[in-house]
Amino acid sequence: MNAATLRLVLDQIAEMFPDARCELNHRNPFELTIAVLLSAQCTDETVNKVTATLFDKYREPQDYLNVPLEELENDIRRIGLFRNKAANIQKLCRLVIDKYGGEIPRKHEQLTELPGVGRKTANVVVSNAFDVPAIAVDTHVERVSKRLGVCKPDDSVLEVEKKLMKKVPRDEWTITHHRLIFFGRYHCKAQNPRCEVCPIIEHCKEGKSRMKAALKKRSNTK
């Protein structure tokens, strides 16, 4: 996909989802970090249900260390991989207290040193909590980027991130990340994407292929 076509596609997605944003509920960088950590292999909706009570019980890093691991595990039991995530949360809180005075660090390389925090989580935190442009590649961003032909089907997550950073203006990285997530979550879904009503279908090789196959199937059943 060339630059001019990508511009048209991004502008169309912007029109479709003008209110795209981070859907994880949080009040500060610390809560956002915990929420994103919990969201791995879990929906934002489920995370928000859990953090609705979790963030009232645990306000600061020390609060997570004041309870036994088993109690924290029970508090996040509805989250996938809750045992591993509970252990990482306590390790993260200990490191944040010991190394950063109880505050979430602002630099990407510092964030990725925290237990349970990978590149994607760090990108979400720096962009949403500290207004540093970043593109966090989750399953939706990766799927949409590959379906549209912005990236190759066999590109790694890091390769997808680098290509998007190269092709999208830096001051649009964060909002583009949110818009691609909304587009993938609510329109270009993993199963049953809404190709038949997609305004950018003409620019989507996979979408056109899906529609062609659907038309052929319908004609064969007549």
TrEMBL record:
Domain HhH-GPD: 38-186
One Pfam match: EndIII_4Fe-2S
EC number per UniProt: 4.2.99.18
Top-level taxon: Bacteria
Single GO MF annotation: class I DNA-(apurinic or apyrimidinic site) endonuclease activity
Cofactor: record remark: Binds 1 [4Fe-4S] cluster.
Catalysis performed (reactions): 2'-deoxyribonucleotide-(2'-deoxyribose 5'-phosphate)-2'-deoxyribonucleotide-DNA = a 3'-end 2'-deoxyribonucleotide-(2,3-dehydro-2,3-deoxyribose 5'-phosphate)-DNA + a 5'-end 5'-phospho-2'-deoxyribonucleoside-DNA + H(+)
Keyword Transport included in the entry's annotation: no
Keywords linked to the UniProt accession: 4Fe-4S, DNA damage, DNA repair, DNA-binding, Endonuclease, Glycosidase, Hydrolase, Iron, Iron-sulfur, Lyase, Metal-binding, Nuclease
Cofactor dependency: [4Fe-4S] cluster
Positions that bind [4Fe-4S] cluster: C188, C195, C198, C204
Coiled-coil spans in chain: none
Family according to the record: Belongs to the Nth/MutY family.
PANTHER family: A/G-SPECIFIC ADENINE GLYCOSYLASE/ENDONUCLEASE III, ENDONUCLEASE III
HAMAP family, A to Z: Nth
Function of the protein: DNA repair enzyme that has both DNA N-glycosylase activity and AP-lyase activity. The DNA N-glycosylase activity releases various damaged pyrimidines from DNA by cleaving the N-glycosidic bond, leaving an AP (apurinic/apyrimidinic) site. The AP-lyase activity cleaves the phosphodiester bond 3' to the AP site by a beta-elimination, leaving a 3'-terminal unsaturated sugar and a product with a terminal 5'-phosphate.
Protein name: Endonuclease III
Source organism: Cohnella soli
Gene for this chain: nth
